[in-house]
Amino acid sequence: MAALVFTATFALIIWIPTFALTARVYPPNEVTLLDSRTVQGELKWVASPTEGGWEEVSIMDEKNTPIRTYQVCNVMEPNQNNWLRTDWIPRGGAQRVYIEIKFTLRDCNSLPGVMGTCKETFNLYYYESNNDKERYIRENQFTKIDTIAADESFTQVDIGDRIMKLNTEVRDVGILTRKGFYLAFQDVGACIALVSVRILYKKCPLTVRNLAQFPDTTTGADTSSLVEVRGSCVDNSEEREVPKMYCGADGEWLVPIGNCLCNPGYEEHGGTCQACKIGYYRALATDDICSKCPLHSYSIREGSTSCACDKGFFRSETDPASMPCTQPPSAPQHLISNVNETSVNLEWTAPASSGGRQDLAYNVICKRCSSDGQHCQPCGNGIHFSPQQLGLRTTRVSINDLQAHTNYTFEIWAVNGVSKQSSGPEQAVSVMVTTNQAAPSPVTTIQAKDITRHAVSLAWQQPERPNGVILEYEVKYYEKDQNERSYRIMKTSSRNAEIKGLNPLTSYVFHVRARTAAGYGDFSAPFEFMTNSVPSPIIGDGANSTVLLVSVIGSVILLLIFIGVFIISRRRSKYSKAKQDSDEERHLHPGVRIYVDPFTYEDPNQAVREFAKEIDASCIKIEKVIGIGEFGEVCSGRLKMPGKREICVAIKTLKAGYTDKQRRDFLSEASIMGQFDHPNIIRLEGVVTKCKPVMIITEYMENGSLDAFLRKNDGRFTVIQLVGILRGIASGMKYLSDMSYVHRDLAARNILVNSNLVCKVSDFGMSRVLEEDPDAAYTTREITGTYQSQGGKIPIRWTAPEAITYRKFTSASDVWSYGIVMWEVVSYGERPYWDMSNQDVIKAIEEGYRLPPPMDCPVSLHQLMLDCWQKERAERPKFSQIVNMLDKLIRNPNSLKRTGGEIARFQRNDTALFFPTPSTSQEDRPAKLFISMKLRRSFSVSLFDFCMYVPVSKCINSTGFFCLLLPFHGNLSEQHLAEFSHSKWRRQRSRFYALFNAFVPGISERHSFSQHPQ
Questions:
Q1: Which of 113, 867, 873, 913 places its Cα 20 to 30 Å from the Cα of 194?
Q2: DSSP code for 631
Q3: How far apart are the first and last CA of the chain?
Q4: Total domains in the fold of the chain
């Protein structure tokens, strides 16, 4: 009778949960295998015993929909063993399932007379099986999952006050291998009602990231496992870098790697690639959006990659698709000629229409015509045009070496890049001129015949350009020793002469020139011979003079080459040893872009024009100032280019009153950034140089610098996410290293983070002024012989030792800086070396000490940091190797579970803290770890700094730990431990103090240390 009373009393609670059982919309990363609330009709689960145990009951929810529940309340009878088993549940592709149970439970204390038999827990079991027709419950087949207890139990008072106390418990089961499983509930004497049972597994739902689609992916079997998924590009897109993501055990996608780009002719809209509309085009996959067809062009279909030109308009083969279609130019205007004997000067003005292009040029066509001007033919060779005949950029040309008394027609053609595409008549302007009388050209060939002791016969050819009728020739001759101080003249109307009255066995020099009505031409080159001897031209005729000149020049060149080879060989011998210490050799491969230093340009503005795009200031809208830079203000704003959507940008401005050097240094950063194109390098949008203020426009990074971002989000990221951040930075630095660019100032403050948590390397200024932060830089001096030059400022805490000492910056020194950035990331923006001075940092590094692992830092990551901090730069990894190492860590997250940096032992007699050694043996890696703290000696004494370094050789012991001696002066108490200045340790002081007490219980009460520990 009492049992019936309790059952009736318990039945009163069945109505209570109806107040809270509202319909739920489950998250997209959960897949429900069973939900008892959604089952239509009776559940008909198997109960044992079939009578007197679990009982199926219907209740009504808030929508008056019946819900089937099970209840049991046999609290008066001892040794209850009531089982309830679900139907067979297929697991699908799940390896781990989650069981969500909602139930109410009666407080045993509120029931009289049941203290020995009433329970407030029940047991949850499961049984894997491929058989979906199991009829009976075999208890030995089931495996226990957990004992379930209620967070809240109800009493008779709660029933009277209509208070609902519904409990929800979730348990998980894995690894499942059979096709399905059964779930069972064991009652051992509780008063309980199972309101609902839901069984689910988790998946990473279908999603689109960076235009790559990632399918529904069931999570792994382990709670910490990651499933690598390769995405497929959405329709009408192509891979830029293989898209990958990792599905976490919680059903959440981690940071994506790689991306896809819309094909030409398509643009991104809401994660899809849609065809460009008619009248628009997209030529390259790297363009942002579809652009409107340029002037004088059109597209007649969707998805166009270029626009066709209107009739009468053209594009050259080198014109980009974004350039308007253009026309050939009209004819030049106002042609003027000026004849000077056998030379003509022509001048003209530009055409009325250039055709809309900037590559206007002129061609000069020369024709020699008959006296009536009716019959013309090309002039042929022998005429000289200055500066040139074809491709003229100026509107002036000089034509020389024309024939005298000859009619010439000159045509000036205006051409541009599309003149060849045009089928219409070309436009030209012409003029006819007649040359005047002119002096003849020089005689080129002289021969000596019939040489005797006192005479010689000379003969020569007519000048190549007589420029009229030759009236006579003049022969000048003299003894070679007289050197023209005493010479004779002989004139003749023929092309030969007999010279008599010469001295025997004497060398003579002869010159010949011709005369027309316009006057004498120039003398020929000297011709030399000796009387009563076979002619032996020492200087000879014009042809021999040329041969001699070439011979002399060749001899001089050979002599210079010999001298150069001798000097180089001497230098190589002298500096062969020094070459061993030179920068690491770079092997350049075909097709690899190489960084070009803008300061190698004679005109630095040329570098800006070549590598940076000029932007019209009207396209930029400055919204607010977000910082102050070295050269001026840094602002956020918006950029709206014609035919493109508006984007957010960062704007660096050059302050008023700048010098030429400041302007050059300011724009040099744009010249550098403009050469880079990588997803982990800050992107340059363009520059404004044609008006004030001068501006550099870059993409806007919403989350600012990485160090500030990490400090703001301390502890919020998983290790995998931190490794993903480091992988992005390493990928950007690999790109820079492959281009032979050395950053020199790699630090977390110079890494920017966008809204998608993508990190990008920034700050490429060649001139960095650090005087405003004296603690972040240290000035070095270079001394060469007796010459001493003031060095620049160096960020000591991030810089490799060889760069500090010798100013030797290489990709290997960037690797050292990257190791410091790794430490900053894992420590969430801590300051490297804390409050140590720069001098102490330099000294510690030289003595072989390195930063310890940050809190919860995986050993594998700290090992990579130590590799980056190798003293010998040749032993440091390359950035390509770092990227591969981080990819392996991402693919194998179990390698990130073992962490270092925990206190392994506390030893009172020598007051030493021990830290785990690196995995590499002591002989291979003499690395040392250190830590810096601040403690108070007493309440009245001010803070003092200490950081005592102990060589590993003196402190290493058989257990394989490094130790650090702490020179305490007084009692080590909770007050001391509560006042660590290191912010990370300060936040974790309770944990740190607990570790101390774990090794030496009651340390604050029982132990004090000597004033001068050994």
A1: 113
A2: S
A3: 81
A4: 4
Say how far apart CA 808 and CA 510 lie, in whole Å: 67
Q: What is the CA radius of gyration of the chain?
A: 46
Question: 183: part of which helix (H) or strand (E)?
Answer: strand 180-187
339 with 435: CB under 8 angstroms? Answer: yes
pLDDT of 849 higher than 60: yes
Instruction: Please list, in sequence order, all residues whose beta carbon lies within 8 angstroms of the beta carbon of residue 440, skipping any fewer than 6 positions away.
Output: 463, 465, 466, 467, 468, 470, 514, 515, 516, 521
DSSP 8-state symbol, 941: S
Band (564; pLDDT cuts 50, 70, 90): low
Look at residues 384, 403, 435 and tell me which one is the last residue of a structural domain.
435
CB count, 10 Å around CB of 995? 14
In this structure, the chain runs to a length of: 1014
Rounded (10°) angle between helices 859-868 and 879-891:
180
- Annotated binding residues, written as ranges, equal 626-634, 652
How many Cβ atoms sit within 10 Å of the Cβ of residue 651?
26
Give residues with Cβ within 8 angstroms of 559, minimum separation 6: none
What is the C-alpha separation between 59 and 12, in angstroms, rounded? 11
Binding residues for ATP: 626-634, 652
Can you tell me which residue has the tokens 């003249």? 489
Q: Is 960 left (phi over 0), alpha (psi -120 to 50) or beta?
A: left
Domain housing 186: 30-204
Measure the CA–CA gap between 417 and 394, rounded to whole angstroms. 17
225 and 140: one domain?
A: no
**Contact predicate 621/650, CB 8 Å:** no
62 and 148, same domain (yes or no): yes
Is there a single domain that holds both residue 352 and residue 396?
yes
Q: Return the DSSP state at 804.
A: H
Examine residue 183 and state whether it is found in any structural domain, yes or no. yes
Say whether both 38 and 112 belong to one domain. yes
Residue 679 in contact with residue 258, Cβ under 8 Å?
no
What does the alpha-carbon distance between residue 901 and residue 916 come to, in Å, rounded to a whole number? 7
Residues 375 and 513 in one domain: no
Residue 60 and residue 134 in one domain: yes
Residue 573 in this model has a pLDDT that exceeds 90 = no
What the block records as the tokens of 80 is: 């209850």
User: Edge-to-edge strand order for the sheet containing 232-233?
Assistant: 207-209, 212-214, 232-233
Same domain, 152 and 230: no
DSSP assignment of 249-291, as one string?
A: TTS-B---EEEEEEPTTEEEETTEEEEPPTTEE---TTSSS-E
User: Quick check: is 773 in a domain?
Assistant: no
Q: What pLDDT is attached to residue 568? A: 55
Residue 153 neighbours by CB distance under 10 Å:
20
Residue 281 maps to a domain = no
- Comparing C-alpha atoms, which of 591, 747, 560, 766 is closest to residue 671? 766
Query: What amino acid positions are annotated as catalytic residues?
Result: 745
Tokens for 921, please give them: 């043996």
Q: Is 598 exposed, middle or buried (0-12, 13-18, 19+ CB in 10 A)?
A: buried
Q: Which CATH number fits the domain that encloses residue 480?
A: 2.60.40.10
Average pLDDT on 211-237 reads 89
Does 391 lie in the same domain as 243? no
Phi-psi region of 270 (alpha: psi -120 to 50; beta: other; left: phi over 0): left
Query: Which structure tokens are listed for 757?
Result: 């948590």
The residues that bridge with 178 in the sheet, in sequence order, are none
Tens of pLDDT, residue by residue over 742-801, are 999 999 999 999 988 899 999 887 433 333 343 334 433 332 222 222 345 789 999 999
Q: Residue 233 sits in a domain of what CATH number? A: 2.60.40.1770
CA–CA distance, 685 with 697 (Å, rounded to integer): 5
Phi, psi of 694 (to 5 degrees): -70, 135
